[in-house]
């Protein structure tokens, strides 16, 4: 079967965004931007029912998990779902499944660049930037718990407290960035995580992203996992059609009988 053929699953697929993310931006009833550009459309064109929640951009894991639960019970109350969750969205999903009584409502969770063991960049940010950033977010009445929930110490506590559900299948994807100067916006976090944890996508190490039954490693930075393209990417030959990668995820689930 062609790598571009995306399987149609029997149950809905939920795309869960990460820190500072959003679901879909609509103007006059038309979608003008999505957190998963091109991915949601490709999955829908294959006949899949796609659900895209909007969670608090900077809320803590517990709050975002509650928002995700409320969304699922509203939009798919009687049908279990598959979760594809980017970055912090994977932690929210795990918390929801384990702590909020949603184990029977989720068939599979595939995390994309999720810092299951935290990230050294969050540690660095709390130490260096907390005094500058937190007062601004407090003034804007924006929550700040998300930044603390992504530290390595906080995630260690999370992992000891949040158990996997026996009937849910867990899979993961990690990104591997090359640290090139062509992507200067990633150099600082990439270097911090590289020194502390090894190979990473510019934010999350491969080992931190490893979770569940199977890990895939995709070449690219943290945002390229969800098809956010760097302006120079096409000129450097870094742009990839997201369909083969996501077709593989969907094919795995279809082959498992979903």
What is the CATH class name? Alpha Beta
How many individual β-strands?
A: 8
How large, in whole angstroms, is the Cα Rg?
18 Å
What is the string of SSEs from the N terminus onward? Answer: EEEHEHEHEHHHEHHEH
CATH topology description: Rossmann fold
Layout of secondary structure:
Blueprint: E1 13-16, E2 24-27, E3 30-34, H1 39-45, E4 50-51, H2 61-75, E5 81-86, H3 88-99, E6 106-112, H4 120-139, H5 145-149, H6 152-161, E7 169-176, H7 187-197, H8 206-209, E8 215-219, H9 242-255
Parallel strand pairs: 1-4, 1-5, 5-6, 6-7, 7-8
Antiparallel strand pairs: 2-3
Helix pairs in contact: 2-3
Descriptive notes:
- This protein has nine helices and eight strands.
- The chain has about 260 residues and is an alpha/beta fold.
Give me some keywords for this one.
single chain; 258 residues; Rossmann fold; two-stranded antiparallel sheet; 16% strand; globular
Could you write a compact summary of the structure shown?
The protein is of the alpha/beta class and 258 residues long. The protein has helices at residues 39-45, 61-75, 88-99, 120-139, 145-149, 152-161, 187-197, 206-209, 242-255, and strands at 13-16, 24-27, 30-34, 50-51, 81-86, 106-112, 169-176, 215-219. The chain has a single domain, classed as Rossmann fold (3-Layer(aba) Sandwich), CATH 3.40.50.1820.
